[in-house]
Amino acid sequence: MWHPFADMSVVAGHDFVIASGHGAHVKGADGRTYLDATAALWYCNVGHGRVEIADAAAAQMRAIASYSSFGDFATQPTLDLADRLAALSGLAGAKVFFTSGGSDAVDTALKMISRYWALLGEPKRTRIIARHRSYHGMHVAGTSLGGISANRDGHGEPDPKIQNVTWDDAEVLALEIDAIGAENVAAFFCEPVIGAGGVYPPPDGYLTRVRDICKERGVLLVADEVISGYGRTGSMFASQRWDMQPDLILTAKGLTSGYLPMGAVLVSGRVAEPFWNTPGLIWRHGYTYSGHATAAVVANVNLDIIEREQLVERVDELAPVLSAALNPLATHSHVEAVRTVGLLGAVQLRPDVIKEDPAIGARLVRAARDRGVLTRLLADGGLQVSPPFVVTREDLHSMGRVFDEALGSVGSTRVKPDQLHVDLLPDTTTDESGGFDSSDARLRADVPPHHGT
Ligand SMILES: Cc1ncc(COP(=O)(O)O)c(C=O)c1O
Fold it and tell me: What is the structure's pLDDT at 235?
């Protein structure tokens, strides 16, 4: 097996095999249990081992696993899911275009946008702007769109129609659009919270200013919510939390919690209009698995669980616990910063430490794994934190303690040891669960959440 994003000269023959999972934990083929600090690749939001999802998928497969969505074909679960996502999106007159995953959603949006402007008689609007540090999947266009240069290296010149602007200054976006000429700019792509680029929450006021800049100039605003969608920041969509009012929302990952692969582009009625109301127009775009019936069933049950167990609210309640567990690590000599928002976080190593010892990040990840916590290094040297929403308060604190020990094991020292000790070892005699029952029973689909008890 050729692993994605891997140094195969090291990984070949050393696959780390995961055998099973339950809630926020997974079991390796080595027989050990690990805390899944990243929900696999930011996706297993409802936690592992949901029998309810497996049963629903099996039942659908027995009826019919899937059928084409091209032309007028459809299956009922896919129609139901489209209606549900349109309602959740908050977009006026929303339509839903299904894909196989996030990179497909990015590609679909780019093609939809160029066709939209052509249909509106503005074919000069071809230029696309995205942000430094951003990640928009690994298809050819998404590789150009993303602002992580390491992901482009060795693939020739990026698409000249696409350019990146600084990630944290909306006025620079305005200047760039005006320099290009707004009449030439098709869209601005924006992760509300930068994810794979290092978990950077938006600066105060940034997203509303971006919204206004795009509206004033007629530029379409695309919220790439492949990570943030379906609750990760404590709102169903991060674009709602920050009142972004995008024209398109790109989603995948948490749509199914990864139980099956699926993506969805949520499109405002305004953008869909010329596609839907031009007689004779066939938009020749779509994927074999667009609207896969079993994936749609999985997504519907996944959303049922999120609603029934109030998992988005739970993210909001756990957000301060995550910061309390991670913030003390900022006092470590090797740590540049700790950033958190919702159930997302990064513990960022200092760039000079990485420069001096490029393998330190890999050793740190390994040290955490040896101590029972699975994480990975993000593009700019941050440890990824994005646990399943069913993680407990005690899990989050023990993750903080493990990161503390792992940092110590790679030579980092605590600048203020006493303070760190106090913060990393909370008094577990008080009710650390804050009303959440962390027992296995809580994860069974038939057991309601124990809010406010
Ligand atoms: C913001 C964002 N967009 C797009 C993608 C691509 O999604 P996929 O890997 O499902 O193709 C990702 C994946 O991490 C992502 O984080």
Answer: 98
